[in-house]
Amino acid sequence: MKISIITVVYNSSLTIRDTIESVLSQSYDNLEYCIVDGDSTDGTLSIIKEYEQKFKGKLKWVSDSDTGIYDAMNKGIRMATGDVIGIINSDDFYHKTDVIEQIAKAFENNDIQATIADVRFVNPDNLDRTVRYYSSKKFTVNRFRFGFMPAHPTFFTYKKNFEKYGYYQTDYKIAADFELLIRFLYTNKLKFQYLPIDVMKMRTGGMSTASWKSNLLLNKEIVRGCKENGIYTNLFILSLKYFVKVFELIITKE
Q1: What's the rounded Cα separation, in Å, for the pair 195 and 197?
Q2: DSSP codes joined into one string, 25-86
Q3: Among 3.40.50.2300, 3.90.550.10, 1.10.10.60, 3.30.390.10, what is the CATH number of 3-253?
Q4: Hey, is 113 helix, strand or coil?
Q5: Coil, strand, or helix at residue 165?
Q6: What is the pTM of this model?
Q7: Which distant-in-sequence residues (6+ apart) come within 8 Å of 234 by Cβ?
Q8: At 78, is the pLDDT very low, low, confident or very high (cuts 50, 70, 90)?
Q9: What is the mean pLDDT of residues 87-113?
Q10: Segment 119-139 mean pLDDT
Q11: Torsions phi, psi of 29, nearest 5?
Q12: Quick one: which of 186, 205, 51 has its CA closest to 124?
């Protein structure tokens, strides 16, 4: 089974090397790496080109303008030739070499249409310090209503599912990943398997947590995504999730 990993990047010269190295070090051999760059100007392209030979034809990349991160993700999915698609952000990295091997093994079960797992949020200044552990273990589709989703970068599914059920909606600013997961796992009932592994480390400071305005926009888009897929929720219901997030931080510190 061929697995395609997609990275969307724009001016990430300080972190993209870690991401590329982590994909390059995976023990699973039948792997394709697709990088979609949004016309970076900071040296990111030079780093990508540096790794072309190391991948021996497995690395594909394109650099041009796009309308946003979800447009770029869709480009990566369309350019991928693998059976299964996964996404890793340009400031995240796999910290274990057998991650893709374990995911590929899960797809040997013909009933499985997708996998989810855990991630570690780490301090950008100390990548060994976990500040939050995001577990997808207790996720069920009923939790979408409360604003919970499995960790998006741990979501792997067949490329044919994007072709059948649609791609990321580009008119969302922050929560197109949330809406897509609702559409795939709730609306179209794709059977998924939880893998009890922490797939990657993610540096803190993402777009959806940048400010209170970003969080408000995120929640409004979550309400929209739920409504479009027949799930009732509202901003008050979504606010309850922050108590759980605080608990996750406390548990991590302990």
Answers
A1: 6
A2: T-S-SSEEEEEEE----SSHHHHHHHTHHHHTT-EEEEE---SSHHHHHHHHHHH--SSEEE
A3: 3.90.550.10
A4: coil
A5: helix
A6: 0.92
A7: 223
A8: very high
A9: 96
A10: 95
A11: -85, -40
A12: 205
